[in-house]
Amino acid sequence: MSTLLVIDAANPGEPVLGAPLPERILAGNPSNMTWDLEKTPDGKVESGVWEVAPGSWNVVKDCWEFMHIVSGHSELTEDGGETVVLKPGVSFVMRPGFRGVWTVIEPTRKIWITYQA
Predict the structure, then answer these.
(1) What residues have CB less than 8 Å from 50, skipping those under 6 apart?
(2) Cα–Cα separations (whole angstroms), residue 3 to 6, 38, 43, 44
(3) How many C-beta neighbours within 10 Å does residue 43 have?
(4) What is the mean pLDDT of the segment spanning 58-68?
(5) Which residue in 32, 44, 87, 116 has the most C-beta neighbors within 10 A?
């Protein structure tokens, strides 16, 4: 078994369909597809690919998450903070406790890695 995982963000396999909690949706229909690719035996670290349709919702992050935007156009605004434009090539980390609004202007795909302490 290889200890290397190559992520093909364009063809990650069969997705799981989802959406933000209905009470968090602010506009549109931000349905999403998630491809869970890797999980450590203790379940603390996970990685995958995620794509979301246009809309906006309140984000509540209770774990650490690294993200890299592969395609699309979104904006992320932390409560009380500046808006960050998310386009292909942008990488960022949401730390536990992040609260804000994610607005998808064009369908957006990201590679993600989470860590649950």
Answers:
(1) 32, 33, 34, 35, 109, 110, 112
(2) 10, 11, 17, 18
(3) 8
(4) 97
(5) 32
